[in-house]
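[step 3/7] inverse_fold.run input=structure_tokens len=298
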């Protein structure tokens, strides 16, 4: 017996969702524990280095499993044609139309839901996995006030390329507030609460840096202004070393500071800055003196 494990994440014109891929991995883990030889097919658009359908000769397999998602559509009909000599089993699928060729093409249906069937727990239920860091990403908009010193396009291209290869859960965060827009926070407290739930913040924006350190979260800052703008100035004011200017920015430099932010040293420095954040503000003290002096002059 040799089994080919497939799902919607296997198709070039399919879709790779977290639940779909987790289901494939759970099925493959069960096959491995039962000593059954198997391969997983993933789309070349999602996983270029994985096994693709072009690598999976139908003559090499006795069974094809299709896992998770709807048992519906032309992709499944093509799967039946390509692997017509294999025993085909659908497991953990939603049966939308039991009479469709996609559904009837399987020798056996083990659905999670569908007409006339009892609902079963999805295959992704109980997915066991290692923990990866959660990274909040706060990118600045164009800042025309810096004129020819602005390097936003180059800096953001490098940061995005580096982030795409990072082994982490990347969460885009927007400092803009709005009332009634579900995808934006409506209060500073809401945004700060988001920041607090991340492990590291990667930012090109001043307040991404400031609010991360206020919450004791290490921040990897890339200043998009040549010669150093407000991000670099703020990092110096806070005594925070993990800031890179556009002339020094590279993926290797981002890697170096990423490792530091994830280290005990980075965590301790961020915690120390958080601990001192409530001791007062030089700007507020200066404002108070100005107002006090103005009151005395009246």
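[step 3/7] decode complete -> sequence:
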């Amino acid at each position: 017996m040799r089994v080919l494990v497939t799902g919607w994440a296997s198709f070039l014109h399919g879709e790779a969702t977290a639940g779909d891929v987790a289901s494939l991995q759970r099925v493959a883990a069960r096959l491995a524990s039962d000593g059954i030889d198997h391969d997983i097919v993933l789309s070349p658009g999602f996983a270029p280095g994985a096994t693709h359908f072009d690598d999976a000769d139908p003559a090499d397999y006795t069974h094809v499993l299709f896992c998770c998602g709807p048992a519906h559509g032309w992709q499944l009909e093509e799967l039946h044609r390509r692997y017509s000599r294999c025993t085909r089993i659908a497991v953990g699928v939603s049966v939308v139309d039991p009479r469709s060729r996609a559904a009837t093409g399987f020798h056996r249906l083990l659905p999670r839901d569908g007409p006339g069937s009892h609902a079963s727990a999805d295959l992704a239920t109980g997915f066991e996995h290692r923990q990866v860091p959660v990274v909040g990403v706060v990118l600045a908009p164009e800042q025309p006030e810096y004129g020819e010193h602005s390097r936003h396009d180059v800096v953001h291209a490098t940061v995005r390329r580096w982030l795409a290869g990072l082994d982490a859960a990347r969460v885009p965060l927007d400092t803009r507030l709005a009332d009634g827009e579900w995808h934006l926070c409506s209060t500073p407290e809401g945004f700060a609460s988001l920041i607090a739930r991340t492990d590291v913040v990667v930012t090109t924006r001043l307040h991404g840096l400031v609010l991360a350190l206020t919450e004791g979260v290490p921040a990897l800052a890339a200043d998009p202004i040549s010669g150093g703008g407000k991000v670099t100035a703020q990092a110096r004011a806070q005594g925070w070393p993990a800031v890179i200017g556009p002339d020094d920015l590279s993926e290797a430099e981002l890697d170096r500071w990423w490792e530091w932010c994830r280290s005990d040293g980075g965590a301790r420095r961020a915690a120390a800055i958080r601990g001192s954040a409530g001791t007062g503000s030089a700007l507020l003290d200066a404002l108070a003196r100005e107002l006090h002096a103005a009151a005395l002059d009246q």
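[step 4/7] annotate
The chain is about 35% helix and 15% strand.
Strands lie at 2-7, 37-40, 63-67, 87-91, 108-110, 134-138, 169-172, 200-203, 219-222, 243-244.
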